[in-house]
Each structure stands twice: as C-alpha cells, then as structure tokens.
C-alpha cells in the first residue's frame, strides 16, 4: 500500500513510522519546513520513546520519507491520512477544524485514481461529511471515499499502542474503502487486534466517548481523593478496592492534579459543545470539565497550604512540567495552572523536567530552570512532584534535605509513602491520603 500521512506531529509521525514498519510505502507530509528539515536530517522533532530508532530503520529501508510537498505525496497514494491538529477554537471551545478542512482542500486538488481519504485527527461527529463535501466540490471527478479512523494511542507509549491496539475503529459505509483499510491494517491481524467497522459518524463519536469516559474516571477518583482527605481515608486503597472489580477496572484510577495534555481537555470540551448543539447535553462531561479546570489551580493552593499559608518570597521547586511522563508535550499540562497560581501568590518558581523544558519555556514566563532534581531543590522552601517521571521515583531525601531551606514535599502523584519521606524530616502532603 502507498500511504500519505498529512501532518507529522505526535500522531502522524508515529502512525506513519508504524505503517512503514508494517511494510507499507509511507510519505509523511508537514507544512512546517523546520519539522521536515529535521526529519530529513535524521532528527526527531518530538520526544517519544523508541521513535528515533523506528524512523531511522524505516528510512534506511526506503519505506519512509518526508516532504513539505503535499501534492506529489497524495498523487498515487492508496490511502491519504489526515493527522493534523484539532485544537480548541479560541473563544468558544469547539474543535477548530480549519487545519482539517484546509488539508482536505489541498488533498482534493492532488488526488489521482481511487483514493481513500482517512481522518485520523480527532474530529466532531459529522466532520467526515464536510470533508467529503469539500473534496467533491473541489474535485468533482475524483474517485474518493472518506473514512474515519480515530487514533487511540497514548503519548509516551505511542508505538506499542499503535502496534498492539486494544481495537481499531474504521468508520465507513463503503465496502471498497473498507477493503483498503483492511489491507492497511492487515499486519495487525497477527496480533488479533479487533477491527470494528462502523458507520462514519459512529466512529467519530466513539473517539470522543472514549476520551470523555476516561476523563470522567480520573475526575471521579480525584473527587473521591478530596473526600478521603476530609474523612481520614486513603484514596489509593479505595482505588484498589474498587479497581479489582472487573466491571470497574484498575486503570485510570490514580488521583492527581487533574488531567491535562493535548487530548482530554480539548476533546471533553468539544464533546460538551457538540452535545449541546444537538440538544442532547452530556451533563456528566460538562461537570467533569468544570471540576478538572478548578482542580489544576487548586493544586497551587495545596502547595501554599503546605508552606504554611503563604509562599510570598519563597522558592518553590517543581519536579516535572509535562502533563505526564515520557513525553515532551506541554499542551494543557496542569503545571501551567500550578505555576500561574504560585506566581500570583508571590512565589519564586524553579523547575526541572527531563524532556519538557524546551516546550515549557515559551509557555511559562518568569520561572527558572534547573539541570536536575537536586539543583532544582537547592535553597527551596518546598519541593513539588508534579509529573511522575521515573527520575523522581527514587530521590535521595537526605541529599534533598541538606540542599533545601525548608523540608516540605508536596507529592501530587502519590509517588512516595508518608513514612519514607517523614523519616527524613520532611513535612509531606499528597493527594487523598489523610
Ligand atoms: P500535532 O500538533 O503534534 O501535529 C499536527 C501537525 O500537522 C503539525 O506538525 C502541523 O504542522 C501539521 N499540519 C497542519 N496542517 C497541515 C497541512 N495542511 N498540511 C500538512 N501538515 C499540516 O498534533 P497531534 O498531537 O499529532 O494530534 C493530531 C490529531 O490527532 C489531533 O486531532 C489530536 O486530537 C489527535 N490525537 C492526538 C493524540 C496524541 O496523543 N497527541 C492521540 C490521539 C489522537
């Protein structure tokens, strides 16, 4: 199969490299010349474990290449994937589909022969209809089918998720397009990945329903954590107690500072708007969005409380800035609200993140960066674990204690046990553990 991937970001680059690894002939397109230049020079513009080796191998085998030129990549492709961004639209929170529609228009002008255009970006229900309309309007003669194939990979484990997915969802009513999609994913039959062929709208909605459900699960345990703190209970034990029930499941029951990242915040909001527009409001998700927004800022208040009620003039050291470990993605990370809350309260903020500092710099003004956890803690009045990178899971507390002015640890990811930390003379606060 010849595949063109339009958009070479977290999803496009991983998907393109994995498809090439399946044996397909893949060309990844991006309109950002710096990104393509880097890829052509063998540099990976994002941090994703294993991606450099996978890209390198497939480039060497001649199955994967990169270009800024959409038209030649699309001409002759059997399948053209749209994997461009769909951020929240400024002002109203709807998904901004301008990148998707612009890509559709460009693709329409370049198609030759029968082509399946596949929307991999997360797009509101009905977007496939509009993409099809744009293509038919721009190129009435084109032989084309528009399919939805939402992506469920997680940053930080993206390659494994792509190659061993829990399921693949293909939204099309067109048998010929379904056959092409089956061919694209055929190598995964070996892993017995369930392939669900659904209507296009159903596939589009499935992606939002999945993300909204996961965001709800996180928000649920976060509120249970707050209650645990008030009533003298332990949220980790509650999570285990409910998670062992197979109907509930153990995953996504880790209490923390609120969900962030490039997907859950924008996708929950977009689903809320879509549902309201269609007169079928999903109030549980509306509440999840509101609760989560407040929670991120509340984490700054938690740090302030741990510091005795004021951080004015105090140095607060943050460990971890990205929304989760093993990624450099800073989009909607809880750290953004936490830093803002601390700075508003007069704190001097210093931070260290193993991979995220470059992306953090333009987003976080007025903070300084350290080269590791111990430099970050130097002279600090409080240390806050914001993201649970492995590098923060076995900290040397004696060394930290000696480096810090005040021994306060706020563990927003419940990485440590109170005993371990208090033994070293720290005051310790965590999430949902009274
Ligand atoms: P991203 O911002 O990392 O990448 C998008 C890329 O598309 C950018 O490099 C941009 O330059 C490029 N682009 C935009 N318009 C273009 C055009 N007309 N032609 C060529 N390139 C163009 O975004 P991402 O994180 O990869 O997300 C892409 C989509 O996948 C979004 O809809 C997102 O919701 C969805 N998604 C993301 C994840 C994730 O973990 N990041 C997981 C599942 C689904």
Automatic annotation (TrEMBL):
In the record, what terms sit under GO molecular function? NAD binding; UDP-glucose 6-dehydrogenase activity
Please list the residues that bind substrate.
Answer: 152-155, 207, 252-256, 260, 324
- Which Pfam families does the record cross-reference, listed alphabetically? UDPG_MGDP_dh, UDPG_MGDP_dh_C, UDPG_MGDP_dh_N
Q: Kindly state which reaction or reactions the protein catalyses.
A: UDP-alpha-D-glucose + 2 NAD(+) + H2O = UDP-alpha-D-glucuronate + 2 NADH + 3 H(+)
Name the EC number(s).
Answer: 1.1.1.22
Entry keyword set: NAD, Oxidoreductase
Q: In which pathway does it act?
A: Nucleotide-sugar biosynthesis; UDP-alpha-D-glucuronate biosynthesis; UDP-alpha-D-glucuronate from UDP-alpha-D-glucose: step 1/1
Any one of the GO BP annotations: polysaccharide biosynthetic process
Cross-referenced PROSITE patterns: PROKAR_LIPOPROTEIN
Note the superkingdom of the native organism: Bacteria
- Domain UDP-glucose/GDP-mannose dehydrogenase C-terminal residue range list: 317-418
- Residues binding NAD(+), per UniProt: 30, 35, 86, 122, 155, 266, 331
The catalytic site is made up of 263
- Family listed: Belongs to the UDP-glucose/GDP-mannose dehydrogenase family.
Name of the protein in question: UDP-glucose 6-dehydrogenase
The organism of origin for this protein: Methylobacterium brachythecii
